[in-house]
Amino acid sequence: MALKDIKAKIQATKRMHTVTRAMEALSAVKMRKTQQSAFEGRPYARAALSILARLSGSQDVQSHPLTQTREVKKTAVVVITSDKGLAGALNSGVIKAAVRAVEGRDRDSLVLFTYGRKGEEFFSRRGYTIAKSFENKRDDVPLSVMQELSAELSRGFLAGEYDEVLAVYTNFRSTFEQLPTVRKLLPLSIESVSELVEDIRPAKGKWSNEPILTSPQSYEVEPSAEEVLGLLIPRLVAISLYYMLLEAKASEHSARMVAMKNASDKSKEVTRNLTRAYNKARQAAITREVSEIVSGREALAT
């Protein structure tokens, strides 16, 4: 490789290193903000979901239409991905988990709600039915967006348009660990709520010693169970979705920061290797030129 080509590659790699370092720093700032939002939302989500767990032992909840299990003929799937790439295997992990969750089912029996462009592009290209898609660009998504989606999912479930609702998102474990997770939103059950609450409870810290939720033998609801549960259950679904979005946001920025750090480290390594190759090639060229000068002088002397 010519010296000019090696030097051009070194300069291009250094420019790439500058870009990845800037993206790493930006992702680190966003990661801290979204992590804080996710952590602060965990106690609220746990408290809200615990309401359903406490009510689950009552006959009113067990007979509510949104908690009734029936034969699954059609499924709605909420897929939460990002709009942007450069986040390692984050989006591909969510998409693979969603595909596994509906594996073996007829595509005509599936309805998808995609939150994020990556998920929408993947499933639309493969002929899946996408009922509604949302952009996932902002970090400060209002709860009202999830309340709108929750209301639509609840209406569809009550109308018999689908018999279950699944949500696929990335659960934030730590900066270096994000786990693709599948959760059943509807019909609501104490088992699904307990699983989600268990994920909310961190392994360490203030909320790690919270007891596992259990339902009492009886629970009185005023003014009426029908009125309260009609408002409560769709809102609990919205809170669950909102919490999943917070976890997905924290996971996205964490994964992107780690990916950009790895890219920055790799670009530095490539720059060192190219610089070493450039120096070797330059030294070889100098040695060759000196040898030619010496050989020419000796030829003239003879």
Describe the structure.
With 302 residues, this protein is of the alpha/beta class. It has a domain at 46-256: 3-Layer(aba) Sandwich (Pyruvate Kinase, Chain: A, domain 1), CATH 3.40.1380. The protein contains seven helices and five strands. Helix 1 (3-55) runs antiparallel to helix 7 (225-301).
Quick tags:
Pyruvate Kinase, Chain: A, domain 1, single chain, 5-stranded mixed sheet, 13% strand, 7 helices, alpha/beta, 302 residues
Across the major sheet, the strand order is 3-2-1-4-5
Taking all Cα atoms into account, the compactness measure Rg is 28 Å
Total DSSP E strands: 5
Annotated CATH topology of the domain at 46-256? Pyruvate Kinase, Chain: A, domain 1
**Which whole number gives the mean pLDDT?**
79
Biggest sheet details: 5 strands, mixed
Oligomer: single chain
Shape: elongated
